[in-house]
Amino acid sequence: MSIYGTGLTANPVVTFDDLPATIAYSSEHQINLLAPYEIAGRQSVSLQVTTSSGASQSIALKVAPTHPNIFLVLNSDGTVNSPSRTAKQGSTISVLVSGAGVTSPLEPVQVPFTYTYFFPFSTGIGTITAAPQYAGPMDGSPVNLLRVDATIPFVSASVLNGFTVAVQVGDATSPAIPLYVTGVSN
Questions:
Q1: What predicted TM-score, i.e. pTM, was given to this entire model?
Q2: What confidence score (pLDDT) does residue 108 get?
Q3: DSSP-derived 3-state class of residue 112
Q4: What are phi and psi of 37, to 5 degrees?
Q5: Which residue pairs from 77-83 have beta carbons closer than 8 angstroms and sit at least 24 positions apart in sequence?
Q6: How far is the CA of 65 from the CAs of 35, 76, 91, in angstroms?
Q7: Going from the N-terminus, what domains does the chain have, and what CATH number goes with each?
């Protein structure tokens, strides 16, 4: 989840019904966070941001079982997928996703850890929907960061410029993001 505004400072505290969120990034104008597991099963929560300047007004938010968002895509060599670092057709990418929902155990304390997701997954690359080769925790990642591995399909060269990737978790699908693909893998 991302919060945008002004005066957010570098060390904010974000709470959902007084439960602290895990802050992944913060700056003067943006906070990226992971909601606490304990809000699972609730219909709504009250969100509040506290900085060195004081506390914001609380706002009510609805809680969804899943709300996947793609954090980033890694090529098979571990580089971040970008126009200058493309993936090859036939290679396997790793899609890192937040908002994948409740896991078991609910609150891992140490990383790396092992846990199980409760919702089914699918991966859409281009116009092809495929079951992922792997869907589970990303070793050493923050709590609730899902890694989904999928193979890039072979398509005609004219289709390569319009590739996108999206991940479905349960009934919710992430927004599609560009996937930069060239050639064929070795």
A1: 0.72
A2: 46
A3: coil
A4: -60, -30
A5: 81/179, 81/180, 82/180, 83/180
A6: 12, 30, 31
A7: 2-62 (2.60.40.10), 69-184 (2.60.40)
Which residue's entry shows tokens 């996108």? 164
Strands 116-117 and 19-20: unpaired
Order of strands, sheet of 92-98, starting from the edge strand that comes earlier in the sequence = 69-74, 92-98, 146-151, 134-137
Tokens, residue 92: 């396997």
Closest of 160, 163, 3 to residue 95, by C-alpha:
163
Q: Are strands 164-169 and 121-125 parallel, antiparallel or unpaired?
A: antiparallel
Residues near 72 by Cβ (< 8 Å), separated by ≥ 6?
80, 81, 96
Alpha-carbon Rg for the chain in angstroms: 18
Q: In a structure prediction context, what are the per-residue pLDDT tens digits for the chain, which is 186 residues long?
A: 889 988 887 689 999 999 999 888 899 999 988 888 788 889 999 999 999 889 999 999 999 888 888 888 999 999 999 999 999 888 999 988 888 777 665 554 444 334 444 455 556 666 567 668 887 777 766 556 788 888 887 776 655 666 788 888 877 888 888 888 887 655
Look at the block and give the residue holding tokens 């970008």.
82
Q: Distance between CA 167 and CA 130 in Å, rounded?
A: 10
Q: Give CA–CA dist 55/57, Å, rounded.
A: 7
Pairing of strands 44-51, 22-26: unpaired
14, 21 contact by CB (below 8 A): yes
Strands 87-89 and 181-184: parallel
